Each structure stands twice: as C-alpha cells, then as structure tokens.
C-alpha cells in the first residue's frame, strides 16, 4: 500500500456505513464523533499550520503567500530531502490547476535549474471537465503502474467518489503526465526531461535561464527563416506522440515554449489514448487546427483538415473508418 492510499483509507472507512458491524458493537468500541465540515478559512489555517510544522530546514528563497505556503512546502519537502532540489527560487507561472516554480537543482539531476509543477489542492483549484480525455485511459498509481480492475477496494472508492477515490483520480491525472513525459523524452520528443514525481508534483527540466522562463510560442513573433522549420518540428512531435499511441489533447501555441530558436511541448495531463478513446479523431483534428492557426498568423498557411486526416490514416485510420467520424 502506498503512502497516499494509507493516508486516505481512514477517510474512506469513516464514511462507510458497514464499518460498525455487530461484532464491533459487542466489543463496545465508541462510535465515531460526528466531525463537522470545516469552513474554508479553517482548512487554510490547518494547511498553513502544517507548513510551519515541517522539519528539515527547508527555508527557500522564494517566499510563498499565506494561502500558498502549506501545499507548496508540503509538496516540495520530499524533493528537498532527497536533494533533487536545493532551493525554490521563483514562481514562474500560476494557474488554476497547477503552478510552476523555478528551483535550484541538486547534483543528482545533472542540471542547474529544474521546474517544479505543483498541482493545487482540490479546495483551491477549479478542475476542467476531464471526462473526455480520461475515456479509454487506465487509472495509474502513484508509482505510475496501472491499477488492476480486480482491486475492488480502490475501484469502489473511485465509484463512491470518497476522499480516497478522489485522491486516486487526481494522482492518476498527474501520473499520466509524468509517464508520458518519460516515454516521449526517451523517444526523442521535444519535451522537458522528467526527474521525479510524487502524488502532487512533477520535477522536470527547466526551459529558460536564471532571469526568466521561456515564453509561450503564442507570445513570440517568429522570423521568416524560423516559421517552416518550427512548424515541421511541431508536426514531428505530433507524429512521435501518435507513434506511441497518444494525442496531446490540448496542443496549441499556449502549450509550447520557445527558447533560443527551439520549441518544447508542455502540459500533458490530458494526454488522450489514440486507440481506445472514442473522441480521439476529433481531439486530434482540434490539436492540428490550433497549431495551423498560429503558423498561419506567422505567414505559413496549411490545410489543417487535410493534415489531420493524413495523420489519422497513417497512425489510426487502419482500425477506424474515418467516414464514420465526420
């Protein structure tokens, strides 16, 4: 049993009406007290208190806000103890689902800077509707392994939407991003190298320098000599993903970084299964259309529908009649 399973099992048991059977009553165990639901302010105070109670001397250069401190320090302390990071230097990007921080890297990584993508706690973040992307995907454990369908306790928790079940789904969402980065980096894709992960954070290669992070491609005006080569590089990465059986699912110039004339694709939690997601064709067409829209603004018009159809025939069309999807 992993740490996150044991932490949340007590919550699952607390809300299970079968917990107090007759044998338990014969042993005269006291019934659990009703625990009133905490107000948001009380929850925040508990998180801040947890951060203040952390041991190990983790005192980063970056000073988080009061609301940020608890979940940030708790998420990163493990990597500090393991010397994967030695300091948190700056907030690079804040978001509803996750925030990214520039960190000084430990010697084991072989680099000077890493990015820590820290998913926000459920009480602070507004989740997108991710059902479309999860279709056909397995549920992953905190170790990145598929959950067995015979694990009835876990599957029941997910079905009941218990606290443990919700945490399992959250961890699976993050681990799909981490394992996809591992696979694509090994395959030669232009993605950040992932170094480590826990159930709330991914440590990966940082794109940029000590002064600034790489800008989004959407914020860059490409030179005439860059446009065609970078379009071809994006398409190469789309093909690499398809060859691995995946579609990015949210690909656009907002999820591509630009630095020193090169691109890096980011943000893979919604990665879509090519062969088992019934919406795969539509998701691929949308990804290709968004990329073509950006490069058309840069003076390189392309037929997005024709490109998407060609990719589908080459990587997925052999098992699905495309005429049924249009």
What is the N-to-C succession of helices and strands? HHHHEEEHHHEEHEEEEHH
Strand content of the residues, in percent?
Answer: 5-15%
Structural class: alpha+beta
Number of domains: 2
CATH-level-2 architecture of the largest domain: 2-Layer Sandwich
Assembly of the depicted chains: single chain
In order across it, which strands form the biggest sheet?
1-2-3-5-4
The CATH class of the largest domain turns out to be: Alpha Beta
CATH-defined superfamily of the largest domain: Phosphorylase Kinase, domain 1
Number of strands: 9
CATH topology name of the largest domain, in short, is Phosphorylase Kinase, domain 1
Fold and architecture overview:
There is one protein chain. The chain is built from ten helices and nine strands. It has 326 residues and is α+β, with helices and mostly antiparallel strands. The chain has two domains: 3-20 and 30-205, Phosphorylase Kinase, domain 1 (2-Layer Sandwich); 217-324, Orthogonal Bundle (Transferase(Phosphotransferase), domain 1). A hairpin with a 4-residue loop joins strand 1 and strand 2.
């Amino acid at each position: 049993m992993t740490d996150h399973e044991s932490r949340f099992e007590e919550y699952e048991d607390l809300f299970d009406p079968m917990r107090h059977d007759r044998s338990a009553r014969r042993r005269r165990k006291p019934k659990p007290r009703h625990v009133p639901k905490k107000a948001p302010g009380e929850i925040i105070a508990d998180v801040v208190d947890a951060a203040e109670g952390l041991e190990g001397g983790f005192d980063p250069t970056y000073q988080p806000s009061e609301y940020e401190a608890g979940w940030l320090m708790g998420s990163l302390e493990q990597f500090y103890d393991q010397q994967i990071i030695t300091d948190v230097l700056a907030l690079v990007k804040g978001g509803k689902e996750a925030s990214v921080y520039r960190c000084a890297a430990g010697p084991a990584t072989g680099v000077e800077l890493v990015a820590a993508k820290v998913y926000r706690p459920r009480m602070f973040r507004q989740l997108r509707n991710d059902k479309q992307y999860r279709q056909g995907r397995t549920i992953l454990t905190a170790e990145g392994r598929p959950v067995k369908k015979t694990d009835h306790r876990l599957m029941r928790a997910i079905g009941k939407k218990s606290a443990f079940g919700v945490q399992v789904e959250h961890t699976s969402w993050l681990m799909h991003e981490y394992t996809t980065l591992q696979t694509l980096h090994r395959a030669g894709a232009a993605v950040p190298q992932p170094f480590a992960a826990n159930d709330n954070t991914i440590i990966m290669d940082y794109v940029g320098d000590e002064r600034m992070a790489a800008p989004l491609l959407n914020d860059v005006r490409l030179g005439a000599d860059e446009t065609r080569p970078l379009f071809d590089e994006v398409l190469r990465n789309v093909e690499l993903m398809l060859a691995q059986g995946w579609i990015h699912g949210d690909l656009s110039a907002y999820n591509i970084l630009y630095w020193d004339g090169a691109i890096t694709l980011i943000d893979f939690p919604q990665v879509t299964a090519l062969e088992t997601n019934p919406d795969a064709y539509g998701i691929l067409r949308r990804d290709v259309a968004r990329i073509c829209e950006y490069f058309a603004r840069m003076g390189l018009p392309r037929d997005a529908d024709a490109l998407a159809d060609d990719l589908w025939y080459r990587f997925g069309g052999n098992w699905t009649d495309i005429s049924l999807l249009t």
